Structures are given as C-alpha cells and as structure tokens.
Amino acid sequence: METAMGTAMRTVNERPRAAASDPHPGPPRILELGLMPLVTAAFPDRTTFLDTRLRWADVRTRAPRSGSLPVRLLRLARRVAGIGRTCLVQDYDIVVARCVGPVNSAGRPLAVHAALSLIGLAFRGLVLFAARGGRVRLAILDVTDHLTIHPRDRAFLRRCDLFFKRELAANRWNTLETVLPRGACAGHARQDPACLALRAKLRPFALGIEAAALRPPVPAAARSHDLFYVGSAQGIAFREAVNAVLPRLAARGWRIHAPAHRLSRDAFAAAIAGSRFCLSPGGVGWDCYRHYEVASLGSVPIFDTRPLAGIEPFLHGREGFYLDPQEDLERALDLLLRTDDGEVDRMTAAAQALVERVYTFDALARYVIAETLALGPLPRPIPPSAEEALVTAEAGHRQPSLN
C-alpha cells in the first residue's frame, strides 16, 4: 500500500535529470552524512553518501584493511579530502544527517570520553559546514531514546530546517526543555517567537524496519500461542508487572509463550509468527524495533501507554492495542485475548499495511524528503509540477498539530 506522499516521491524520483542548460534542474540533490545511510537507499540516483567511519578496520568484518601503514594513511587522506571537497563544492540541495546525541562514555577513562566528545564536535562542524549558507536545507535525524533533545544538538536545532525526533513528546515543549534559549522557561517559550520557531522545526520520527522483514501472516486460527513475550525487566515497572501477570494468565487457560531465556533470531521470529498477540512494551524509550517487527512478522502488537507524537500511530483496536495503566493488567489482557480470530486476522493485515506504508526504511526516507520539500520552493528550483505534487501530497499526509 502507498500514500499519496509515497506516490509523489516516486514520481519525482523517476523523473530524468534535466540538462545543465535547463532553467529548472532535476529533482533535488541530496547529501547524507554519518554512519548509517537511510535516504541513500531510497534515492540512490540523486544522493551522495559520505561515510564518516574513518577506521582502519573493515566495518563489517572488523578485519584490518590490507596494505602497509603508508598505503593506509594515503587511503585515509584521500577519503578525508574527498569528504572535504564534496562539502566545499555544495553540489546538492538538501543535507541529511543524524544528530550527535550523548557521548555514551560511562565507565570509560576520561581520555576516551574526551576523544568521543571531540569526534562528535568534529562531525557537527562538518555537517554545519556542508549545510552553510541559505541555498541548502538541513534535515537532522534524532534516533536516541530520550524525550528531550541533547544539549550537544542545540546547534543543529538552531541551524537546521527540520529536526526529525524519535521519542518526540506529545507535548513538544517537553522535548525542547533542555535546548531552549538561555533563561527561557516553558511558560515564556510558548509566547517567544524564537522558541516557537524551534518548535515548528520538530517532526516525529521512528526506528523503522527493513521492508524485507514483512512476511505473509499465518491465519490466527492456525497459530500455536495466544500471547508471546520475552524480555528482561531491567527495572522497568511495566515489564516487571507483565512478568508477574503472565503465569496467572496461563493458569486461566491461555496459551502463553514466555521463555525465560534469550531466543535465537529464527526462534524469535517463529514465536511472533505463531502467536495471535505479542506484548511489545517500551524499554528506555517507547519507540522500539519490536513494535514493527511484531507487525511485520504477522502478529498483533500490544503496547503500553504511548506518550509520544507519531508519524502515523498504531490505532487502538485497528492495528494494535494499548494498555491503560489505570486498569488491572491481568483483567485487561484477559479481555484482549478474547478477541475472535477473524478480528485478529483483520488487525494483523492492518498493522502490516501501516508498517509497509509508513515505517519501512524506504518510507521513512521518503517522508523526510517530502517534509523538507513541503517547506516551500528550494533556492535551486525543482520542476514546478513535481514540487506542487509533493507539497499537496504532504499536506494531506501531515498529522494535526499537537498542543
């Protein structure tokens, strides 16, 4: 299934690049920087990806790269020079990069903390240099587990055109708490033009999943379990409550599959596919890869409370269920498990369609670019018909503003 936004993005992507003499150049050119490409895979013909992992070893195999030290130094110098040349020329219209986020150096020596901090500072400087001036738009992707934006990304928020935030708070002022201008409180921020401008840049985002993970679902009547859950509590109150409730549900006669040990990838996938429902509580953050994995593998996810703004949320009773923290957990799960097989099949299909339409990596990449183009004409214009189609499609796709 595909939204109008996706159709418009595919149309623009398939348009041939205009000749150099054409007053309306082809689709926007994109530069993506970082460790993991997202937009590059969706728009390979018009995206340049700069891999900033300047390492001696192969990233996938961790094996040392071949060649003597001078040869490896020369290769590294060429990569650095190529990155610098690309950013200097600015032969692109949109820059996409991930945020810096926390240093993540807890328990390590101070020297390691300092080195990681400097690496983050250098990356931030590179991204801002690549997006310098008024003719290039900057889209920042924040996939950290935090409801708030880390102070190290304050410069990104100020300079970017859009800030795509996973774990974006339903009240977006909560997400801005740590990066508001000096001396600003939440009450003042809602009336300050500068603070309102920061809030207007926020867009919801998600972890997503690869499209190859989607599989045809097993009919609900043929599934071997009513409810599947595996996971450690790790001090998370909801998970601790779930672990206490599952044995009581099994005593009621429900087919509960809750192994105490870690499963292999294949066993985990088989358990999801063979279960009518799967519990998918949040961890440190609410947004979780398991949410999309459960739907992709053909089961109905059951979530805990969602305190976030989503691109297009799973709706209660349509693509999944949410548990009310005010209700008795055992009673609530017992009622949900009584859902008939026909309804389970319908919800499974709806959940898979939602993931395919919104939460695959390809769909997320197209969403980022469509939102960026919806801001208005680029300084280096793209064909008017393509731009109008994108803006119209995105206007219809955009969720109502919260707060």
Describe the structure.
This is Glycosyltransferase family 1 protein. By secondary structure, this protein is α/β, with parallel strands linked by helices. The chain has 2 domains: 4-208 and 361-397, no CATH class; 211-359, Rossmann fold (3-Layer(aba) Sandwich). The protein is 41% helix and 11% strand. It has helices at 4-14, 39-42, 69-89, 110-130, 154-159, 172-175, 186-189, 193-200, 237-251, 265-273, 289-296, 329-337, 341-359, 361-373, 384-397, and strands spanning 30-34, 47-51, 94-98, 137-142, 162-165, 202-204, 225-228, 256-257, 275-279, 300-303, 321-322. The strands form 2 sheets. The protein has a 6-stranded parallel beta sheet, with helices on both faces. It starts with a helix and ends in a 6-residue tail after the last helix. Mean pLDDT is 85; it is low at 1-25 and 397-403.
Low-confidence stretches: 1-25, 397-403
Work out the oligomeric state of the chains in this entry. Answer: single chain
C-alpha Rg (nearest Å): 23 Å
Instruction: Please give the order of strands in the largest beta sheet.
Output: 2-1-3-4-5-6
Q: Helix count, per DSSP?
A: 15
Query: Helical proportion?
Result: 40-55%
Largest sheet: 6 strands, parallel
Classify the secondary structure makeup into a structural class: alpha/beta
Overall outline: globular
The residue-averaged pLDDT reads 85
Write the layout of secondary structure elements.
Elements: H1 4-14, E1 30-34, H2 39-42, E2 47-51, H3 69-89, E3 94-98, H4 110-130, E4 137-142, H5 154-159, E5 162-165, H6 172-175, H7 186-189, H8 193-200, E6 202-204, E7 225-228, H9 237-251, E8 256-257, H10 265-273, E9 275-279, H11 289-296, E10 300-303, E11 321-322, H12 329-337, H13 341-359, H14 361-373, H15 384-397
Parallel strand pairs: 1-2, 1-3, 3-4, 4-5, 5-6, 7-8, 7-9, 9-10, 10-11
Helix pairs in contact: 1-15, 9-12, 13-14, 14-15
